[in-house]
Amino acid sequence: MRAGRGRPLRAADMKKDVRILLVGEPRVGKTSLIMSLVSEEFPEEVPPRAEEITIPADVTPERVPTHIVDYSEAEQSDEQLHQEISQANVICIVYAVNNKHSIDKVTSRWIPLINERTDKDSRLPLILVGNKSDLVEYSSMETILPIMNQYTEIETCVECSAKNLKNISELFYYAQKAVLHPTGPLYCPEEKEMKPACIKALTRIFKISDQDNDGTLNDAELNFFQRICFNTPLAPQALEDVKNVVRKHISDGVADSGLTLKGFLFLHTLFIQRGRHETTWTVLRRFGYDDDLDLTPEYLFPLLKIPPDCTTELNHHAYLFLQSTFDKHDLDRDCALSPDELKDLFKVFPYIPWGPDVNNTVCTNERGWITYQGFLSQWTLTTYLDVQRCLEYLGYLGYSILTEQESQASAITVTRDKKIDLQKKQTQRNVFRCNVIGMKNCGKSGVLQALLGRNLMRQKKIRDDHKSYYAINTVYVYGQEKYLLLHDISESEFLTEAEIICDVVCLVYDVSNPKSFEYCARIFKQHFMDSRIPCLIVAAKSDLHEVKQEYSISPTDFCRKHKMPPPQAFTCNTADAPSKDIFVKLTTMAMYPEDHYRDRLSRDMGNTDRIENLRKIWVFLKTAFHARLRCMCTCNRCTFCICQNFLNSDLLQSVKNKIFTAVLNRLRARVAEWGAMLLADDEGSITHQVHAVSSVEDSIFMESSHGPLFLEARHVTQADLKSSTFWLRASFGATVFAVLGFAMYKALLKQR
User: Record's PANTHER family (predicted)?
Assistant: First the structure.
């Protein structure tokens, strides 16, 4: 006969062995109980004290190694007793049912002695053991029950007999169970009901198991619950029997052939009252709870290794789970979660994880409710920025249980190193981060909200304390759905290391503010000019009057100089949703950064190659006319002399000097920029390239004269000098002229 309640073993101690200590007055049968358990027979000769007994895990019901320790007042001192008490997980106080003095010592000596050696908040569970029940025909429970009611640390009471082996194995099983499956955290015997912490934990378990969110557990949900907790389903008749038991005791425990929350809690109360609290503990531990009814760190934060330069994303199975979670709580089927629906979803959380800023981070409907796409986007954002928090949230939702996975880590995909993506010139990532940089009030917030499809009118309704520095939404690039994450970087003189790390940079300036572009140009030169991170300049508030920027060159020339796309005009002051063209451009640049970088280099290399070709053509012409053809008459009237005089004329020399001066000026600028990118040294690189250009210039302008510019040379305008088509025409014409002149000379020479 027994009753029960007690204190839990700490979660850290659960993995260790169970240590049982037997104490009591002399000659009550402590040693006999241990020897009868081991030998399965009553010993004829009983020593003063039994040696410590270790029972292997494979022969115990709970599969935990168990140590049984005897105490002898004749052989051990008080200090040794105190040490044994401090090492024990559970203590059995043994008394003889036929000895009233030994029963009185339970309350007058042993319980006070044990409690003095333990903290009030962490009392050791106690088992009262009434030995020698074979000597009497009555029970001692009437005397023991008042003691149990007085001391809540008493877990249970067992009457047994070492002589006829009655309840010997049960005694040690209950002692072991008092450690592994304590009643204390679950049940209050005075009130005869479960404790609030237990009700809260079981309520969360019920809501997770109620997969259709109809407030009841139907047969399929009950069978799933039974299988994941106890590895076996319930037969149809067994299910009906369970429901009938609930119907018999409470009227609203079963509804529409399903078990309600009240019925679910009643069943567990019944288990505890009937001494089957291991059933409740099995359920609690399957859903991640420790003996203090807190979710364990191992459950909430499973191990997940993330190498450097790698990001974290949700995989396909995680999105399916989140989709089912959204559908479960979208009761009105409007593809959006109302505040009440969102509150219902977060009932399985110990706190509300999302603040009001989330509504300005992801897409919402006209009423400000988070849509299905916004719901998935917020989870994607959390996974990318703080994967540990994402694992925690998935744990609260019961991801590993409902999907029957080992842990929430199976929901996460760790992308490969970005360097590998650059080498292979393709990426497997689905989430790309864009840092939005610009002066305060330049329109960065407008860019973020435009990604969510909100025009200026909707943006004005956002409260200052609800603003978000992030925005995330899907963007389609070449038919592929990708997530673009925008991060508003606050204005500062220098960016931190974390503010530089991204996949693409969006530099925003206000076209109506003359001082706005200078900040973008300075940040670009400080942090991004020599990096491989692609950059896009956005001319925000393009609906306003554009003013000249107070910078050495215009934004357009700045982009051309640094081989970037031209500034993208953008405004969110539209009647409908703002244009998403810049977001497609940003995502494309983030997906293919190597193409953007290679284009910058190829333009620089192409200009250098064209200059070199022009130089070779000029050297060829001079060589052809000066070295291979020689005038035989020096009359200055033949075709050769006319051509030679024309080549040496001031007109041609002036045109040649002007053309190559313009070309080399462009070469100096382009080569200097290219050198800065490769050598990461702006001033030193420019100087180096200028010296290189000077050597080219010297080789081209050998002994050239700077005569006056004739009327024909004035037709070569500055616009023509900057046109690549003009250089091709000029070089081609000079070549044709030389070939025709040489042909005419040979024809005349034959006639002579």
Answer: EF-HAND CALCIUM-BINDING DOMAIN-CONTAINING PROTEIN 7
Give the residue carrying structure tokens 């396909």.
316
Check pLDDT > 70 for residue 459: yes
CA dist., res. 742 & res. 746, Å (int): 6
CATH topology of domain 299-415: Recoverin; domain 1 (1.10.238)
pTM: 0.73
Q: Give Cβ neighbours of residue 17 (< 8 Å, ≥ 6 apart).
A: 64, 65, 66, 67
Q: Which of 122, 126, 179, 188 is nearest to 156 (CA)?
A: 126
Q: What's at 367, amino acid-wise? A: R
Query: What are the boundaries of each domain within the chain?
Result: 18-180, 193-290, 299-415, 432-600
Residues with Cβ within 8 Å of residue 509, at least 6 apart in sequence: 438, 439, 442, 516, 517, 519, 520, 537, 538, 539, 540, 549, 555
With beta carbons less than 8 A apart as the criterion, state whether 182 and 155 touch: yes
Q: Which CATH architecture has domain 193-290?
A: Orthogonal Bundle (1.10)
Question: What are the tens digits of pLDDT across the range 589-639?
Answer: 999 887 665 554 444 444 445 555 555 555 555 554 444 444 444 444 455
Q: How far is CA 133 from CA 35, 127, 487, in A?
A: 17, 16, 76
CA 194 to chain centre: 37
Q: And the tokens for 691?
A: 């010296």
Contacts of 117 (CB under 8 A, 6+ apart): 82, 85, 86
Query: What is the tens place of the pLDDT at every residue in 347-362?
Result: 999 999 999 999 999 9
